[in-house]
Specification:
This protein has about 220 residues and is of the alpha+beta class. About 55% of the residues lie in helices and about 10% in strands. It has a four-stranded mixed sheet with strand order 2-1-3-4, covered by helices on one side. Helix 1 links the parallel strand 1 and strand 2. The longest helix has about 30 residues. The radius of gyration is 17 Å and the shape is globular.
Length: about 220
């Protein structure tokens, strides 16, 4: 049976799922959700995902939302031997911690800072920008002496975080002034399978959207 992914190309969480699928060599049946026209609020979509968010994955009767839950599920089911989500307890705990840092701190702070500017015309908030910078400092510490965010090998934590951090390129947040973050960013761009197709294209779409919204 096909694995359906309801998604929006520019969405960082959706791009994290696309990156994971590429790393696992999985073919997803992509279903574009038209947020502008409220497709995510239609009863048939809300039945799949009561949060009416993207992404939503449907695999063999299982409907799953939240990108970080989706990417760990995909590795657990289709790529246990890939190393993307280690089975050893300590290694997995570190990956989980980085994923929770992404959703609870880094991406959350960026969302609270930048999205009101894009979608509501709000002015930039210096205090919120400072919180994003603080999260980047923490990420920089995580990366001290490490090739990837959870150790020596590429994991889903890198794929989730690269989808988030790359989105900063559409904003005035300069993440590349953090040496470890910059090094890691360039490393993942060249080592994550299918990066151009899975992340760069969607990032370009998001940048175009930001440009059009700010005119």
């Amino acid at each position: 049976m096909p694995i359906d992914l309801y998604y929006v190309p520019g969405s960082p969480p959706c791009r994290a799922v696309l990156l994971t699928a590429r790393a696992l060599n999985l073919n997803l049946n992509l279903k574009l959700v038209d947020l502008h026209h409220g497709e995510h609020l239609k009863p048939e979509y809300v039945k799949l995902n009561p949060q009416h968010t993207v992404p939503t994955l449907v695999d063999d009767g299982l409907a799953l939302s939240e990108s970080r839950a989706i990417i760990t599920y995909l590795v657990n089911k289709y790529g246990k031997a890939s190393g993307l989500y280690p089975e050893e307890a300590r290694a997995r705990a570190l990956v989980d911690q980085r994923l929770y840092f992404d959703i609870g701190t880094l991406y959350q702070r960026f969302s609270e800072y930048f999205y009101p500017q894009v979608f509501a015309g709000a002015p930039a908030d210096k205090e919120k920008a400072a919180k994003v910078e603080d999260a980047l400092k923490i990420l920089d510490v995580f990366l001290e002496g490490q090739k990837y965010v959870a150790g020596a090998g590429l994991t889903v934590a890198d794929l989730s975080l690269i989808a988030s951090v790359s989105t900063f390129e559409a904003s005035d947040i300069d993440f590349k002034k953090f040496a470890n973050v910059k090094r890691w960013y360039e490393t993942v761009k060249t080592t994550a399978p299918g990066y151009q197709e899975a992340n760069e294209k969607g990032l370009d779409a998001f940048k175009a959207l930001v440009s059009s919204m700010k005119k």
